[in-house]
Amino acid sequence: MATKRKPPGDASPFLPERFSLPKLREAAKSCHGCDLYIAATQTVFGEGSSNARVVFVGEQPGDSEDVQGRPFVGPAGRIFDEALTKAGLERKQTYVTNAVKHFSFEPRGKARLHKRPRVGEVRACSPWLRAELDVIKPDVLVLLGAVAAQAVWGAQFRVSQERGVVKPGELAEAIIATHHPSAVLRAPDSEARKRIFKELVADLRAVKKLLQD
Q1: 12-212 CATH choice from 1.10.645.10, 3.10.450.50, 3.40.50.720, 3.40.470.10
Q2: Residues lower than pLDDT 70 in the chain
Q3: Is this structure's pTM higher than 0.85?
Q4: How far apart are CA 147 and CA 59, in angstroms?
């Protein structure tokens, strides 16, 4: 019986020789850089223009994204779209992706419950994100939630302490971390949901100002 090959722990071997968003998207369909591809329906790559001035990075695809093959189309995606509208930004002018390209979940009967990706899985997927950013070269990089922020700034970074702070970096001239839209959905009560959404919109308005400046 053939022995199952262990994933290499890094997506680098699956990247194309030359980078473009279409080539990266096609190559990512065959990525076995970590174990997440085994249970996931498909790779969910980023979406948007290679000329986008702002890139949004979330954590990972959810159930809806895994089924549809597109980022931010589920409940958190609807919150994201609402926040963009409130901030005066148009999604079609942005690029939206995730730190991890496959859905990490725990099965509960017929349901698939979100499971935070492990550090090794985030690290394994990092070459895809860096390749996307290498192609786009955004002016502003927005990190949505702790997983995305720590994928860029390291495990010590805390969104709760540095949310909304603009920093320069190698990946973009301006990098800002804020709440993941799903934080609104997970909030314990209506007051917390309103507060988190208001803070998210405020940070997105700051992003708009950065683009205008």
Answers
A1: 3.40.470.10
A2: 1-8
A3: yes
A4: 5
